[in-house]
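queue> holo job accepted (S-adenosyl-L-homocysteine)
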Amino acid sequence: MTNMTHIARKRFGQNFLHDYSVISSILACLQTRPGEHWVEIGPGQGALTEPLLQTNIILDAVELDRDLVSLLKHKFKDHPQLTIHSADALRFDFSSLVKQEEKLRIIGNLPYNISTPLLFHLLENGECIADMHFMLQKEVVDRICAAPGSKKYGRLSVMMQYYCSAECLFEVSPESFDPVPKVTSAVIRLVPHLKPPVVVKDKTLFNNVVTQAFSQRRKTLRNSLKKSVSEEAFVSLGIDPTLRAEAISLQDFANLSNWLIESQS
Ligand code: SAH
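queue> job finished
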């Protein structure tokens, strides 16, 4: 390959990290140990891949843009511990990478246009993942981490907190990327729960109740869930029906969805 210059493609959500202090802050948070099995999503031109490889880990990288795949293969040809997969992370079977008893550690400066479906795709395989560190839009990080009562608390908070614990590590300014995105970013650490924090008997119903409750944020639960939850049910579950969805906890949502199963049987 002669021409190593890559022009960023917007449709692939390409914003390449070029601020070395941000890259080293990310690396410092990861605490990699030699021999660990890591997966990088969207390695791009290798801004994170290169320092990751220096820590002597085993690394699988999943990249959608075929031009970048060839660039990476060329750049890291002397690193046998790196396997580059030319694939769409949204369809990639991450559990197929797991060998024996290990769990994967996942990292990525994610393409923002696919970040939420990708998070759910990964969390559905949460049992094979030790932890995940992602660069996301700060707005999305805040929504994932939000607690009941906050304006940012919504469907994404409840669903994500069912699957994992989430912590915002630090913010990253737009100038740290090329091209410069319109929004501030942040690095988040997600650790899938070994055991769900609440009992949810039917995940589809749970998802439906959460979605329905937040579909019109300003409505009371009594109104937004009118079709499915009776007044008596609210009383028996100890949930005030005059509250809005943003005021109730993950446990309350789990109780509501479990009640629905019983009411249907
Ligand atoms: N990690 C690099 C690049 C970040 S930009 C850096 O920090 O500089 C996001 C990267 O994700 C790009 O390389 C883009 O091509 C890739 N990407 C976009 N959609 C993807 C998908 N569905 N699956 C895998 N990679 C994807």
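queue> The longest strand covers residues 129-137.
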